[in-house]
Specification:
The chain has 501 residues and is of the alpha/beta class. The protein folds into two domains: 119 residues, Golgi alpha-mannosidase II (Immunoglobulin-like, Sandwich), CATH 2.60.40.1180; 365 residues, TIM Barrel, CATH 3.20.20.80. 26% of the residues lie in helices and 26% in strands. It contains eleven helices and 27 strands. An eight-stranded parallel barrel has the order 3-4-7-8-9-10-11-13, surrounded by six helices. A seven-stranded antiparallel β-sheet has the order 2-16-20-21-27-23-24, with helices on one face. The chain is globular and about 70 Å long. The chain binds alpha-L-arabinofuranose.
């Protein structure tokens, strides 16, 4: 007797998969760039100083589009400091993270790093301390082929081909009082609209992301989106969403249901954007770029990482070490992004290396996978074709933070080209294994090609420098397919992926 049932129907289509949903984020923050992806003295470093062991892990992670160079960092960044001969680049103070920025890695080097990882570049412009002209200058430097002052400067700096950056963020978290140059929605909406209009005059094919809210708990959430879009709607393509989750007060049940907040966030932004579009009589739809999402133990960092007076180079900042439970939540957040893929067309796991990241490094030493690496890499590898919305019948439990939450949550993908499918599913129960029967008759699949799960008797188990492979993927305890029914056994607090052919 099944505890839960799932029905998969190929007509329940959400959207064709845009690979940008598996994006990530690299910010000049702590040890993400310096002593992370870049460490010239490391035994695996290439001629640019990039660690090739990290490159291999990024490829395995399956991160597609990488947002760069911030984050809060971008809001006082002068992009031209970070190009040209390295020995002439200035050292600056980074106000966002109270660090020293040497500018040894800039746009041209980072684009070369992404060639190695096979990822696409997504750039953010500084609208905190700068404006339209600097955004246009960066666009010319990055994308214009040749024959202008700034494109010829790029060529002289050793990059003959334009970077051809398609997606651009119009600043970062401009609603946040912590942001250098933060603004009211009205001021930001006007600046973003004018910047977007100018950038699109230069290249009408750009895809522009206007800043939405830094979290669903922001006092201006909803109103911010409405006001900003009233100004910028016709000039932009995406509105951003940022969300970080953490377990508070050992309330694992609420934490495991974090994706309910993400769903609320998405619903609110979509309905607000559509309302503004309707009011403006504009039939274009504004989609969501969920360009920062992750688990982040922000409360602990706020308590432990007191403001410092000195200016440090590549300090160890916000280096969360993730647990099995964190990985299950991350897998569930990715399920939620896919379920909403008709409107969430791009997303960036924040961040990539060392800083709240799936990949960790030690200077001169190893690079390893955090627990959260696994659900991301497997979903990126197996999700193909179209996203299907499953019909789920399951039990529920009460949470202090999100109210009633389903025990089982899932999403599926189906690739008509080769008839393959994939199911991604979580069991949020703290104590009970869930036997789940999945009706796959409509998909015509007949065999389980792969079934991998992540769980552990210790839901707080982690991978660390000392024990880098403590947590990994395991074969799903039961994944059998007969007569159009896939039967799964899902351990408590687990994430599972099943590939079907
Ligand atoms: O990802 C870490 C920080 O979180 C980013 O710099 C900022 O945009 C957000 O507040």
């Amino acid at each position: 007797m099944a505890d839960s049932t799932i029905a998969l129907d190929r007509s329940a289509r959400v959207a064709p998969i845009d690979r940008r949903i598996f994006g990530s984020f690299v910010e000049h923050l702590g040890r993400c760039v310096y002593d992370g992806i870049y460490e010239p003295g490391h035994p695996t470093a290439n001629e640019d100083g990039f660690r090739l062991d990290v490159v291999e892990l990024v490829r395995e992670l399956g991160a597609t589009t990488i947002r760069y160079p911030g984050g809060n960092f971008v809001s006082a960044f002068r992009w031209e400091d970070s190009v040209g001969p390295r020995d002439r680049r200035p050292v600056r103070r980074d106000l966002a993270w109270h660090s020293l920025e040497t500018n040894q890695v800039g746009l041209d080097e980072f684009a070369r790093f992404l060639k190695l990882t096979g990822s696409e570049l997504m750039l953010a412009v500084n609208l905190g301390t700068r404006g339209i002209q600097e955004a246009l200058d960066l666009l010319e430097y990055a994308n214009h082929p040749s024959g202008t002052a700034l494109s010829d400067w790029r060529i002289a700096n050793g990059t003959p081909e334009p970077h051809d950056v398609r997606m651009w963020c119009l600043g970062n978290e401009m609603d946040g009082p912590w942001q250098t140059g933060y603004m009211t929605a009205d001021d930001y909406g006007k600046l973003a609209a004018r910047t977007a209009q100018a950038m699109k005059t230069a290249d009408r094919h750009l895809e522009l992301v206007v800043c939405g809210s830094s979290g669903s708990g922001m006092p201006t959430f909803g109103e911010w989106e409405r006001i900003v879009l009233e100004h910028a709607y016709e000039h932009v393509d995406f509105i951003s969403a940022h969300a970080y989750y953490q377990e508070r007060g050992r309330d694992l049940g609420s934490f495991l249901a974090s994706s309910l907040d993400m769903q609320y966030f998405i619903d609110t932004v979509v309905s607000t954007a559509d309302h503004v579009g309707n009011r403006l009589k504009n039939r274009k739809k504004i989609n969501i770029s969920f360009d920062e999402w992750n688990i982040w133990y922000l409360d602990e960092h706020m308590a432990a990482e007191k403001p410092v007076d000195e200016w440090r180079y590549a300090p160890r900042l916000i280096e969360d070490v993730y647990t099995v439970a964190d990985a299950v939540v991350l897998g569930n957040l990715l399920i939620t992004l896919l379920k909403n893929h008709d409107r969430v067309r791009s997303a960036s796991l924040a961040q990539l290396v060392n800083v709240i990241a799936p990949i960790m490094t030690e200077p001169g030493g190893a690079a390893w996978r955090q627990t959260t690496f696994f659900p991301f890499s497997v979903t990126s590898r197996l999700a193909r074709g179209e996203v299907l919305r499953p019909s789920i019948r399951t039990g529920s439990y009460d949470t202090a933070v999100h109210g009633e939450a389903a025990l089982v949550d899932a999403v599926a993908t189906f690739d008509e080209a080769d008839g393959s499918a994939a199911l991604f599913v979580v069991n949020r129960s703290l104590t009970e294994t869930q036997t789940v029967e999945v009706d796959v008759r409509d998909l015509g699949v007949t065999r389980v090609a792969e079934a991998l799960s992540l769980w552990d008797d210790d839901v707080y188990a982690k991978n660390t420098l000392q024990d880098q492979n403590r947590v990994g993927l395991r074969p799903t305890p039961r994944a059998s397919l007969a007569d159009g029914t896939l039967t799964l056994e899902l351990p408590p607090v687990s994430w599972t992926a099943v590939a079907l052919g």
